[in-house]
Model the fold of this input.
Amino acid sequence: MKILFLLFPLILLLVQGAAGEMGRWETKGGICSFVKCQYPTRAVGRCSSVQVCCIR
Done:
């Protein structure tokens, strides 16, 4: 249980950082997807360490 108190702030920082990066790609017409893009889209950059920016 003690590790949850250590992980919670880390998770919040990761989510907050990812939210700021998503806006940059969305203004360029892209969407952020976890790990890889679906078929009609292609990867053009990274939104975060685990998210890829996809554009049609």
